[in-house]
Amino acid sequence: MDYLDKITSMGIEYAPKVIGAILTLIIGFWIIGWITNMLKRMMTKRGVDETIRPFLASLVNTGLKIMLLLSVAGMFGIETTSFVAIFGAMAFALGMALQGSLGHFASGVLILIFKPYKVSELVTIGGDNTGTVEEVQIFNTVLRTLDNKKIIVPNGLVTSNIITNISGQGTVGVEMTFGIGYNNSIDEARKVILRVGEECPYILNEPKQGVVVAELGDSSVNLATRPFVKSEHYWDAFFYMQENVKKEFDKHNIGIPYPTMDINMVPTTAPSNVN
Prior knowledge:
Layout: H1 2-45, H2 53-75, H3 80-97, H4 99-114, E1 122-125, E2 129-136, E3 140-144, E4 150-154, H5 155-159, E5 163-165, E6 171-173, E7 176-180, H6 186-199, E8 211-216, E9 221-225, E10 228-230, H7 234-251
Antiparallel strand pairs: 1-2, 1-5, 2-3, 3-4, 6-10, 7-9, 8-9
Helix pairs in contact: 1-2, 3-4, 6-7
């Protein structure tokens, strides 16, 4: 019975604290979510850079949750000063174990300070990750590819690799190469490419588009062009030119050759019968 009395007394003593802690957590998390959303709306209204918004919101959200947990711990009579000291020691140990993650966090701060790219810009990271920047988070940068795939690149890899900002300058050159046969006229093919470029609704008048002979290949004469477009129309112009140049080449009997090989047969005489 003594044990039962102790359990009952402990239940009576701690039940209000437990209920209070649960209610505090539920209400606290709701308030933190409301504050985070209000912060996002306020940053949007004040025109804060799109790249910084999710980073700051995530940082504030995490800090408020830590403060809430400390408050709940204090409700159970835990000395918060001691708890903070223990938490600090745990954070130090965890930081040593998660040096890579802390490095990604530091890299995220560097990205926000130096701004090698912003949200909605088309970038290539490390030479093989190309996409539109959707978000710069505390530890990662989120890219969206042309085929709507999501690429999550750790910020540490971003700052330690080559970053090519394709659209950050407002305009960009669309590099394209078209091959024609050696028996086709270079001048006529050049006129066709330029005419298609003039008809393309995305290509800018300045700087003026040009067409040059880039290479005398094994089976084709390769003509290169680099019309300039607004950054957001990069792929629109690329696909327009690819399709319509081919159609115009067909109309003017300009062939786009494929690799061929000439085989020369050397006749041999049959060996004579030797008696």
